[in-house]
Amino acid sequence: MYAAIRRYTFERGSANEISALVARSFLPAVSQIPGFVAYYVIDSGMSTLTTVSIFETRDGTDRSVRLAAEWVAQNLADVGMSRPQITAGEVRVHKMAEHGVGT
Question: 15, exposed or middle or buried, with CB in 10 Å at 0-12, 13-18, 19+?
Fold first, then answer.
């Protein structure tokens, strides 16, 4: 399993507005990349959003990074979105709960 974490800052707009646009437009595209496992948007506060993309393969993660760069350039230029700080690589240790969230 592989993950890419991208940290962005923005100058205009709100985390809620940007997250809603990501959910409507980017999420459907990134989830179509082969090997997709999960995608998260985290409101880190202080005009900062952090995203986490998880894929079964390194290729999927690499494709998600390229797709995100293209999508941000095309869709978020008006909010003054920064170039992201990117951390990507193989997930070495992980554990998931054996029960559903909230149960």
Answer: middle
CA–CA dist 29, 84 (Å, integer):
19
DSSP readout, the chain? -EEEEEEEE-SSS-HHHHHHHIIIIIHHHHTTSTTEEEEEEEEEETTEEEEEEEESSHHHHHHHHHHHHHHHHHHSGGGTPPPPEEEEEE-------SS-TT-
Instruction: Give the CATH class of 2-90.
Output: alpha beta
Q: What is the pTM of this model?
A: 0.90
**β-strand partners of 9:** 48
pLDDT tens readout for residues 15-66: 999 999 999 999 999 999 999 999 999 999 999 999 999 999 999 999 999 9
Q: How far apart are CA 27 and CA 58, in angstroms?
A: 19
Contacts of 44 (CB under 8 A, 6+ apart): 7, 50
